[in-house]
Design goal:
CATH topology of the largest domain: TIM Barrel
Shape: globular
Largest sheet: 8 strands, parallel
CATH class of the largest domain: Alpha Beta
Number of domains: 3
CATH superfamily of the largest domain: Glycosidases
Helix content: 10-25%
Radius of gyration: 24 Å
Distance between the termini: 45 Å
Strand order of the largest sheet: 27-26-25-24-23-30-29-28
Length: 590
């Protein structure tokens, strides 16, 4: 049985596809000689690895934490006969960090970025019968790479964990038309009951028709057909334009909320000379995020955000669970604990996480995996991958906010008092770049402290005493630039005044319990037992809920992770207390 054999991209699905997950040939390239010796023309079979699991994980079949910066993958495949006449793409949901791909010994392309998906059209590289794909991956333990919580040391430490190298999400082949949809942006407008559909096409060389059929619960809502003639820009008459947009109407649209996550199914078809040449299934939720007078609004109504920090680690697969039901379970448990949202922390998650948040009703914040010390290489690495990730995740209904920087990671010199103007300019660049792609969601400029441009004020404090949290917040109200919280850093940087943005406590809690008898750490003094843990959480949440300025929070955290044992569940997802006991706390303010 092949693990993770489901269709890998549920938000943009095609019918003709085959998984390349499963057993691959694998080799470590300790001397980095594979390119010189042209391994892509040879058989690679030193080890066997199970894709899509990183070699550091037990599910990979290798399970070593030794540092191997260069690794190779290889497997054979055959293209189904009924794909004849269509274009064939090879797709990767995520490979950490720099990838090079060959098909039948010929170079196809490369990708830099450990969290972003990528694809290549390999049609012209294929032969009849058996084909071979070879992948070389570089993943150095460099803090200049966006790595999130993956340690760049030889071992895990503090809140940094086992690293993940190579393929860690699904790989698959897909058949597409000679003219096909590359991607779309779905822009819902609940005030007009419409959705603007922006599309990008591949292989534009003659006029086509785009047809969009909208259904809900199997019932037809509307169908829109749009002619797409060959078009050019004023600046170029050689290459036709590949993009455009049209509007679909959804009369009496039902809105998406965490309590009632209504979604509309869309079927997009490309029609050329009367024949369907490409077809994609997707969906859209009618919802709107906005802010006014210091409050957050969902669908023009105030909402109190009750979120949990979720790092997305699993004991057997590290970054990658062995089954999508494990992802679904985490979303379901988040809701059972009383939360209406989650801040996916320092990781861009598997597509099924956002899919289940859309389907089951859970607001999400999407956060970039951090580099650490700033330099120009960091800026290039972060800005390139982040823009691609925002575009890639744009259509997930549940995503409310983008978080390009957390706790000044990637501009860490700020925490040591550096006045280097590049640091703040880098953060503000990320803010504006995000807005240039998505003007409909919030952008949190630097979650935790030292914020410059930001749509939301996000505060971190891990005091275990409710009275101390209250005292510190009162001091913050008196001086928005004071370093009054337990990290001693200002929430707003000098020169950036509070302008009435909604204020949230986006990290707090992290209670460890002595009764658990687990090695590892939590924040502050550990609770003697689970009863004391519940009482402490109740007191902390009470203080936040009682402050009128605060319009939401994010509790740390959903599960234990390796040496960090301060979750509401253990690392292997065993409950520490009954969810109802916590739901009475986390679910009480609406």
């Amino acid at each position: 049985m092949v693990l993770r054999s489901e269709y890998p991209r549920p938000q943009f699905a095609r019918e003709k596809w085959i998984t390349l997950n499963g057993e691959w040939g694998f080799a470590f390239d300790g001397d980095n000689r594979g390119l010189l010796e042209e391994w892509y023309k040879q058989e690679i079979n030193e080890h066997k690895i199970i894709v899509p699991f990183a070699y550091q994980s037990s599910l990979s079949g290798i399970h070593t934490t030794e540092i191997h910066p260069v690794v190779w993958y290889q497997r054979e495949f055959a293209v189904p006969e009924d794909w004849e006449g269509e274009r064939v793409t090879i797709n990767f949901n995520a490979v950490d960090y720099y990838s090079m791909v060959w098909v039948n010994g010929k170079f196809v392309g490369s990708n830099k970025g450990g969290y972003v998906g990528f694809k290549f059209d390999i049609t012209d590289y294929l032969v009849a019968g058996t084909n071979r794909v070879t992948i070389r991956v570089e993943d150095y333990p460099s803090p200049k790479q966006p790595r999130g919580k993956q340690t760049a040391r030889k071992e895990g430490w503090a809140c940094w964990y086992t690293p993940v190298t190579g393929i860690w999400q699904s790989v698959w082949l897909e058949a597409v038309g000679k003219t096909s949809l590359d991607h779309v942006k779905l822009e819902p407008d609940i005030d007009t009951n419409t959705v603007n559909v922006r599309y990008w096409l591949n292989g534009v060389n003659s006029p086509v028709v785009i047809e969009c059929r909208v259904t809900k619960d199997g019932k037809d809502i509307t169908t829109t057909r749009v002619d797409v003639p060959l078009r050019f820009t004023n600046h170029g008459h050689v290459i036709p334009r590949d993009e455009g947009d049209f509007v679909i109407s959804i009369p009496d649209a039902q809105w998406w909320t965490p309590e009632e996550p209504h979604l509309y199914d869309l079927e997009l078809r490309i029609i050329h000379e009367g024949a369907v040449v490409d077809q994609v299934r997707t969906y859209v939720g009618m919802r709107k995020f906005s802010a006014k007078d210091g409050k957050v609004y969902l669908n023009n109504r105030p909402i109190y955000l009750r979120m949990v920090l979720d790092q997305g680690y699993w004991p057997e697969g590290i970054y990658t669970p062995k089954d999508v039901d494990e992802i679904k379970y985490d979303v379901e448990m988040t809701k059972k604990f009383g939360f209406n949202g989650a801040r996916k922390h320092q990781k861009i998650e598997d597509p099924y996480y956002y899919y289940f948040c859309d389907k089951l009703g859970l607001i999400t914040w999407c956060e970039m995996a951090a580099c650490y010390e700033y330099d120009e290489e960091v800026s290039l690495n972060i800005t390139d991958e982040w823009q691609r990730l925002v575009q890639e995740h744009y259509n997930y209904t549940s995503i409310m906010a983008w978080v390009p920087v957390n706790e000044s990671w990637g501009v860490d010199q700020l925490t040591r008092g550096s006045k280097d103007p590049r640091l703040v300019n880098h953060m503000n660049t990320l803010y504006y770049l995000t807005k240039s792609i998505d003007s409909t969601r919030f952008v949190v400029g630097n979650d935790g402290w030292q914020q410059a441009l930001t749509d939301l004020i996000a505060i971190h404090d891990y005091s275990q005493e409710a009275a101390e949290i209250k005292r510190r917040y009162e001091a913050f109200k008196q001086d928005r630039h004071a370093g009054v919280f337990n990290h001693g850093l200002p929430i707003l940087l000098e020169g950036y005044e509070y302008k009435g943005q909604p204020i949230l406590f986006t990290e707090f809690g992290g209670v460890k319990v002595k009764e658990q008898q687990a090695e590892g750490w939590g924040y502050g003094q550990e609770a003697e037992n689970y009863e004391e843990m519940i009482a402490r959480i109740d007191a902390l949440v009470n203080v936040l809920e009682a402050e009128p300025e605060i319009v939401g929070y994010c509790y740390t955290q959903l599960t234990d992770v390796e040496q960090e044992v301060n979750g509401l569940m253990t690392y292997d997802r065993r409950l520490k207390v009954e969810p109802e006991a916590l739901a009475r706390i986390f679910g009480r303010k609406r």
